[in-house]
DNA sequence: GTCTATACGTTGATAGAC
DNA sequence: GTCTATCAACGTATAGAC
């Protein structure tokens, strides 16, 4: 499902040296910051190199070109992304499972806001770099997530809401706290969203969404 | 064609000629498309000029520089944005008012997705161009919106949810359908979101959010 | 493996003919 | 008011010395 990140040199296929690993990490880190703020087109290799503390020729040595670096960053992110998603099953207790899912997504929004923003930018920009990602497998996976909700509905464990739109509600409401953190801070007079703020936000979402779906909260 | 009062040149304050009005409109239209896709930094005057069918020197004639054009586009959007927001009052019936509000926002996401995306890109990019917009007045306005919900809560018309987070839930869940339309289409196998799709999405949100807040639906 | 120097296209912006 | 020609700055990418 995810694009491939070479643990080995993309050029030689040999195991990565310690220096290589360290430099690649520094570059990816710097690239994440820039891509998250300015998107693909708006980011320059120059700026990334400066932020990573390396001459810009090195970026081209480790990643063949700008798109190569971008794909590496995206892959990094999708790996994270995917790993937080596959926990719901029809056998689960809806209240418990949904609570856990929302908490996990909010925790992700708090700890990896950059990842969420890069993803958002890419989607808004047309998402062509993710066309590989949104393939048959992805649609099948999405379907299987939706069918979990359908199973709960059929078993009378929750209201007959549209499972697909419920997923979009879960995604939209949780990612909002990563992508729009700037606006949220400005509006509420904060300088940053604390762990506590995010937990409050999560509790609020859990209350409204569970009750809204006719699920009794877990004890 | 009607005899409207001509808009005025942003430079001279003199009445705008018909040519000027037409060209400015074409430029802003093209600029919106590009800024919505690539953000401020990722957009080039060159591309905008080509899309507007004008030599690029003209853009600098009508709008002093790139930032001037960007601000013009943003202002255009904020005007639209604000005009859809001020309908909730403590005297309203919560069910009716919230239903209307969600429908309005979804209608906005359907008709003006570009506007929503430019706003999203700007916020993700740090939102410095909006620092003027997020001023004292804005915070006061936001507060007054939140206090409407608080009034409903105090009157026992809805559950004691956090009014501020409720607003973020409303914003996040409705804007998601504009900003992430690409992903939604890919995932659901559609080519575009129809009016009918958006109405379904709205109905779903209304069901979950109203019930989740302990509000009985309007009849 | 690393970095300096550089090629060469594109950028935002302007000067000046029409 | 409009547009062609042009500028300096910056973009990605590479060649080749170390």
Automatic annotation (TrEMBL), chains A, B:
InterPro entries hit by this protein: Homeodomain-like_sf, HTH-type_TetR-like_transc_reg, HTH_TetR, Tet_transcr_reg_TetR-rel_C_sf, Tscrpt_reg_YcdC_C
Hydrolase found in the keyword field: no
Location of region: Disordered: 1-20
GO molecular function, one term: DNA binding
Pfam families linked: TetR_C_3, TetR_N
Domain of life the protein comes from: Bacteria
Designated name of the protein: TetR family transcriptional regulator
Source taxonomy: Bacteria, Pseudomonadati, Pseudomonadota, Gammaproteobacteria, Pseudomonadales
């Amino acid at each position: 499902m995810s694009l491939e990140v070479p643990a080995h040199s993309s050029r030689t296929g040999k195991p990565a040296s310690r220096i290589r690993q360290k430099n690649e990490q520094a570059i990816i880190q710097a690239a994440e910051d820039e891509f998250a703020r300015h998107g693909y087109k708006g980011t320059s290799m120059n700026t990334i190199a400066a932020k990573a503390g390396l001459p810009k020729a090195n970026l081209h040595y480790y990643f063949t070109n700008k798109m190569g670096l971008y794909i590496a960053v995206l892959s990094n992110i999708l790996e994270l992304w995917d790993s937080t998603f596959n926990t719901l099953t029809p056998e689960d207790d809806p209240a418990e499972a949904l609570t856990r899912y929302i908490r996990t997504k909010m925790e992700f929004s708090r700890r990896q806001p950059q990842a969420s923003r890069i993803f958002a930018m890419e989607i808004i920009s047309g998402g062509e770099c993710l066309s590989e990602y949104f393939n048959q497998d992805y649609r099948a996976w999405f379907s299987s997530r939706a069918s979990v909700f359908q199973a709960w509905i059929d078993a009378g464990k929750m209201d007959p809401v549209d499972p697909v739109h419920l997923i979009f509600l879960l995604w939209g409401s949780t990612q909002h706290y990563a992508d729009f953190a700037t606006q949220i801070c400005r509006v509420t007079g904060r300088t940053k969203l604390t762990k506590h703020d995010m937990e409050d936000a999560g509790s609020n979402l859990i209350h409204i969404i569970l009750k809204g779906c006719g699920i009794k909260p877990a004890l």
